[in-house]
Structures are given as C-alpha cells and as structure tokens.
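Design request, tokens follow.
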C-alpha cells in the first residue's frame, strides 16, 4: 500500500506500474495481484485509505461538543494540519482530479461520507448565528470548500508557486505563518 501511494502520487495513475510498485514494496507481483486483483484495485485501495483517514479524523474532532467559534477554529486548524501532514492525500487528490474523479466514484459510500461533516458544520453555523457570533446565511459547503482551498492549494502547487513568487513555500516558518493566515481569514469572514 505504501509503495502504491508513493508511485501513484508521484507518477499518476497512468504512469505507475504494478511491477515497480511490487519491487518498491519488496514483494512478488503475484502477491500484489492476489491482494488487490489489479492496478485499479490497488489504486482504489490507496484512494480508500487516504479518504477514509480524513473522514475518520474529522469525526474524532467532536465539533458539536465545542462552542461555535471554537469548533470552526478547530476545523480550520485540523484541515490545514491534515493537508500539511498527509502528503499522500494531497498527491492522490491531484491524481484523482486528473482522472476527473472516475475512481473515487467507484468507492461506494465513501465520497458521500463528507455529508456528515457538512451537517455538523450546518449545525455549528446555526448555533453561531443564533448566538450572534457568526454572520447569517453562510453556506456550509461553500465555507468548507474555502477552508479546503486555503489549506490545500499552496501544497498542491508548491513547486510552481515557489518559483513564481521566489519563496520557498515548503519552509517551516512560511507554513506556520500560512496556518495563522488561513485561520485568520476564515474567522474574519465568519465571526461578527
């Protein structure tokens, strides 16, 4: 699985080869086919792993137990940190976008698993608006896509952005400042 994540992430679906993945994993190619059935089967297992991990981690946040302001701040910080610390997710999301989501659609209920998070965000927004902390009429999906975008784009485009702006976007100080900036942007928009 680890070798598959690395190969698919660096070479894309079309560029990854089962022979190379098996070699990097130190296993026989027949073992790869025994467990995963095909290159597609391994790729689907890799996608399932990275998407299941983020959904499970989101559920563990217990956002409904927090005040609306703390819940949103925690969600933004978690999303930023998850993207930063889970290179496999970022790389496979890039690859799957080049595939137009065709494999993600095959994972059954997994692609829709984010609906639970959206329902939680809707509930947090409702509590925050009723309590006077949040601006009214914020769309939960729009908000979450904005949080994802602010937490993801600099990583998915790190090389081109670093060259374009003559800054090392992988620098620890820059990434720390980016995290603060992302939290500040979302909260400045949302909080009254």
């Amino acid at each position: 699985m680890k070798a598959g994540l690395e190969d698919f992430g660096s070479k894309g679906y079309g560029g990854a080869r089962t022979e190379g993945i098996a070699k990097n994993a130190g296993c026989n190619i027949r073992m790869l086919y025994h467990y995963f059935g095909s290159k597609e089967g391994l790729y689907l297992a890799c996608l399932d792993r990275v998407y299941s991990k983020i959904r499970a981690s989101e559920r563990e946040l217990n956002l409904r137990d927090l005040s609306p302001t703390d819940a949103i701040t925690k969600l933004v910080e978690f999303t930023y940190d998850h993207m930063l610390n889970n290179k496999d997710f970022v790389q496979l999301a890039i690859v799957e976008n080049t595939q137009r989501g065709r494999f993600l659609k095959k994972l059954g209920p997994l692609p829709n698993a984010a609906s639970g998070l959206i329902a939680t965000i809707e509930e947090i927004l409702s509590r925050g608006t009723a309590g006077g902390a949040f601006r009214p009429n914020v769309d939960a999906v729009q908000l979450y896509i904005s949080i994802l975008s602010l937490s993801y784009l600099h990583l998915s485009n790190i090389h081109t952005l670093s060259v374009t702006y003559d800054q090392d976007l992988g620098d620890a100080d820059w990434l720390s400042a980016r995290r603060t900036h992302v939290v500040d942007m979302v909260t400045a928009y949302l909080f009254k």
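Comment from the thread starter after seeing the answer: thanks! The chain has one domain: 46-190.
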